[in-house]
């Protein structure tokens, strides 16, 4: 039987947040669904879900976007994990990362939350931090801008032109995790782009 992965894109609900840095995780999940011609449907775990496969005969992907605000993502993620019978080591959480430069992706399993309240809440709700994180770099704000304002603002014009590449790379990374595992994905995507 094929493996099942719960792939969660973090973000905030509502049109005013749709194109902000904080919602890049949801942008990636949207891209994964778009590639497969799938649309999201309401789920009782307070999320929108699309079911797909990495490729025919490959791992199953439960693509999810919590309806809750970022800081309380844990409830929907834990509910989906229970509903689909997915263990923490087969949960992939896509989120924005201030400490990684824009246009960079880093992946890891477990560890601390690095001040990311969405990741903190998921670890608390699951009772373990041992889930995969695809950390999509948004970089630090310029000057003295408050990081909270930075993550809730849209990408700059120059970044918007590069955003489809970054979102595509993060989607490719998730597919590779589903196909070959975390180590293969890290080896490919942690290297600088040629």
SSE blueprint and pairings:
Blueprint: E1 4-9, H1 24-35, E2 41-43, E3 47-53, E4 60-66, H2 74-84, E5 91-97, E6 105-109, H3 117-126, E7 132-137, H4 147-151, H5 157-180, H6 182-189
Parallel strand pairs: 1-4, 1-5, 5-7
Antiparallel strand pairs: 2-3, 3-4, 6-7
Helix pairs in contact: 1-5, 2-3, 5-6
Enzyme class: hydrolase
Site (Discriminates between blocked and unblocked aminoacyl-tRNA): 12
InterPro entries: Pept_tRNA_hydro, Pept_tRNA_hydro_CS, Pept_tRNA_hydro_sf
What does it look like?
- The protein has 194 residues and is of the alpha/beta class.
- The chain has one domain (4-189): Rossmann fold (3-Layer(aba) Sandwich).
- It is 36% helix and 21% strand.
- The chain is built from 6 helices and 7 strands; from the N terminus they run βαβββαββαβααα.
- The chain has helices at residues 24-35, 74-84, 117-126, 147-151, 157-180, 182-189; strands spanning 4-9, 41-43, 47-53, 60-66, 91-97, 105-109, 132-137.
- A 7-stranded mixed β-sheet has the order 2-3-4-1-5-7-6, with helices on both faces.
- Strand 3 and strand 4 form a beta hairpin.
- Helix 1 packs across helix 5 (157-180), helix 2 (74-84) crosses helix 3 and helix 5 (157-180) packs antiparallel against helix 6.
- The mean pLDDT is 94.
């Amino acid at each position: 039987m094929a493996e099942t992965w719960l792939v969660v894109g973090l973000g905030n609900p509502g049109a005013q947040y749709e194109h902000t840095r904080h919602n890049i995780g949801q942008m990636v999940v949207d891209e994964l669904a778009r590639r497969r011609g799938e649309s999201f449907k309401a789920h009782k775990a307070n999320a929108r879900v699309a079911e797909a496969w990495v490729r025919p005969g490959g791992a199953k992907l439960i693509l999810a976007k919590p309806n809750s605000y970022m800081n309380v993502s844990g409830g929907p993620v834990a509910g989906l994990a229970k509903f689909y019978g997915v263990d923490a080591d087969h949960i992939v959480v896509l989120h924005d990362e201030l400490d990684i430069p824009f246009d960079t992706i880093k992946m890891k399993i477990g560890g601390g939350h690095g001040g990311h309240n969405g990741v903190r809440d998921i670890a608390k709700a699951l009772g373990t931090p041992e889930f995969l994180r695809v950390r999509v770099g948004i970089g630090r704000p310029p000057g003295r801008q408050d990081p909270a304002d930075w993550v809730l603002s849209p990408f700059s014009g120059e970044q918007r032109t590069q955003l489809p590449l970054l979102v595509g790379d993060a989607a490719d990374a998730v597919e590779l995790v589903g196909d070959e595992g975390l180590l293969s994905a890290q080896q490919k995507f942690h290297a600088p782009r040629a």
